[in-house]
Amino acid sequence: MRTIEYGDPAADIVLVQPVGEHELAGIETELAEIRARTKKAFRLIAAAVEDWNADLSPWAAPAVFGDEAFAGRAADTLQAIRKLCEEKEKTYYIGGYSLAGLFALWAAHETDRFAGVAAASPSVWFPGFPDYLRRHGIRSAAVYLSLGTKEEKVRDPVLASVGDRIREAKDLLSERGIRCTLEWNPGNHFRDAALRTAKAFAWVMEQPAETDARETFVLRPARPEDAPRIGQIFEQARRFQLAQGFAQWSEAYPTARDALDDIAKARGYVFCAGEAVCGYCCIEPAGEKFYEMPMQPNPAAGGAGEGSAEGGSGGDAGASGTRRYSEPVPAQVGFEGRWLADGRYAVVHRMAIGEDFRDRRVSRDFFRLIAVRCRDLGVVSIRIDTHEANRRMQHVLAREGFVPTGRVCYPECERLAYELPLER
User: Fold this and answer.
1) What is the structure's pLDDT at 362?
2) pLDDT of res. 311
3) Which residues make Cβ contacts (< 8 Å) with residue 212, sequence separation at least 6?
4) E strand or H helix at 282, and its extent?
5) What are phi and psi of 358, to 5 degrees?
6) Residues 124, 35, 105, CA angle at the centre, nearest 5°?
7) Helix axes of 99-110 and 74-82: crossing angle, nearest 10 degrees
8) What percentage of the chain has pLDDT greater than the value 90?
9) What DSSP string runs through 17-86?
10) Within its chain, how far is the Cα of 208 from the centroid?
11) SS3 (DSSP) at 291
């Protein structure tokens, strides 16, 4: 990749634009159009890639037109671009046209270095990109999207999907609190590329530097190295429960070892603000046996019992192997009540938010991302249970649309059950 710089080298605003060699001839036109739309000084770094399809595609994909497949080398390109954006006092925006516009959108999900994204006629038809947008959170405050009015009126079904995909992207970003606009330009994909890119950059440059947009969160699979932080979050939640006068969790459960067990079974997720892990949950798509069991005598009622399934482990003890709860052992085990949805469901267990995020009203974002993940898993509803004294959680569940369905008795504890049917 080679770079060519334009504009004011001392400007506080830096525009980063991946380009193909074929686009360099239009950069001067683009610069003039940007200057016609904003009085702000800027520097533009054109990052010319060697192989358009390979260097700007976020993952490998088969050829969509012609016979040139996508090699998925965007991560290498982004690594090189990040080295161009190391002056912390500068404000960086990333943008581009066509596949470079797609790259800009993807890059803004992978790093928080860019204040805004200028995606002109982005190739959001790219295989797998709609799912990527749903599963990840963008880390820029402002996003400009555009498309030509004739771009979706083509014969190729993949390329023709671009209109629906960009509308979906606009709605998703707006729903997540991102300042986003979608502009429709006259003509097909090959008309006025320099002008369209200029309008995109000018728009994001004019957005307030200090955004009042909601903080951007993501839900990602937990990794073993997250376990110490997850254990800390569990301990903070345990103390918070005691401060409210109840003990939903014991000293022995849950711990970082339980999180590692979830991670090994690919059901542990961390809720993140940028790089910071601020919450954790287990999403178990295999269901919960005690949710499906009619009430019956509890074999553990006369002894220590085997441990609760509140952690989604189907009645197993915690990773420590010790009893989890100090509350009275129920006389029965099973479910009493009525579930709302028939079909496959996911269970959420061990959900907790770190104390430094607890008062920032982030639970709505946490549940929103859990619902996105559960839809991706193909389930029809989300089920969850909580302590009868956990009024705060019951309030949050009601706010998020969960409906009380009855009570579930595990071998060691009794909980209130809730369900949220998912709209497809």
Assistant:
1) 84
2) 38
3) none
4) strand 276-284
5) -65, -35
6) 20
7) 70
8) 71
9) EEE-GGGGGGHHHHHHHHHHH-----EEEEEE-S-HHHHS-SSEE--SSTT--EE--HHHHHHHHHTT--
10) 24
11) helix
Tokens of 1: 């990749």
pLDDT for 287-309, tens place per residue?
Answer: 999 999 999 999 887 644 333 33
* Neighbouring C-beta atoms of residue 172, cutoff 10 Å: 16
**What's the pLDDT at 197?**
97
What pLDDT is recorded for position 175?
Answer: 75
Write out the two tokens for 17.
Answer: 């634009």
Residue 300 has φ and ψ, to the nearest 5°, of -85, -5
- DSSP for residue 295: P
Report how far apart, in Å, the C-alpha atoms of 359 and of each of 96, 128, 383, 392 are: 38, 36, 25, 12
Contact by Cβ (8 Å): 258, 222: no
Task: Give the residue among 41, 38, 48, 39 at the shortest CA–CA distance from 16.
Answer: 48
- Quote the Cα angle for 122-128-132, to 5°: 80
Closest listed residue to residue 113, CA positions, set 102, 100, 104, 124: 104
| SS3 assignment, position 218 | strand
pLDDT in tens, 311-331: 333 333 344 444 455 678 899
Sign of CA dihedral 22, 25, 26, 30: positive
Domains of the chain: 2-205 (3.40.50.1820), 217-421 (3.40.630.30)
Question: What value does the mean pLDDT take over residues 15-38?
Answer: 94
Reduce the DSSP state of residue 417 to 3 states and report it.
Answer: strand
What is the tens place of the pLDDT at every residue in 379-404?
999 999 999 999 989 989 988 889 99
- What average pLDDT is seen over the chain? 89
- Assign 137 a pLDDT band (cuts: 50, 70, 90): confident
> What value does the mean pLDDT take over residues 196-216?
78
Show the tokens assigned to 254: 């849950």
Tokens of 258: 């339980």
Q: Is the dihedral of CA 119, 124, 126, 129 positive or negative?
A: positive
